[in-house]
Write a structure and sequence with these properties.
single chain, 128 residues, globular
């Protein structure tokens, strides 16, 4: 098993130098698990921010040979749980297959005060 930490140049860069965006755990058979740290995005509304988050997640996964279809777990943090339907509508645009395991939390405040949503995922990448 090999572990690597990465901030892919092909994806938006982290907002702080104190974390890596992707931890890749590579298995001997070439398969891997990707742990993608929580992502936030700019935007005035939850819909705009959610769309930006999923676009960033898509880019981070793509840099490691994966896609949203490979996501097996998703954790979402919302500052207002009453807007879960608004978030869910955008999420369904991006996660179109069998839904992954999921947890959603309400958080009083996120990494940046203007952030309304933060999403982290785990993806399973099959051997090539």
């Amino acid at each position: 098993m090999q572990i690597s930490l990465d901030n892919p140049a092909s994806a938006p860069q982290p907002l702080s130098p104190y974390y890596s965006q992707v931890a890749r755990i590579e298995h001997a058979d070439g398969s891997a698990l990707l742990f993608v740290s929580g992502q936030i995005a700019e935007g005035a509304t939850l819909t705009e921010q959610t769309r930006g988050v999923f676009e960033t997640l898509t880019a981070l996964l793509k840099a490691h040979g994966a896609g949203l279809a490979d996501v097996v777990n998703i954790r979402t943090y919302l500052t207002d749980i009453s807007k879960l339907d608004e978030y869910g509508a955008v999420r369904r645009e991006f996660l179109t297959g069998t839904p992954p395991t999921s947890m959603t939390f309400e958080a009083a405040r996120l990494f940046r005060p203007e952030a309304l949503v933060e999403v982290e995922v785990v993806a399973a990448v099959p051997a090539r």
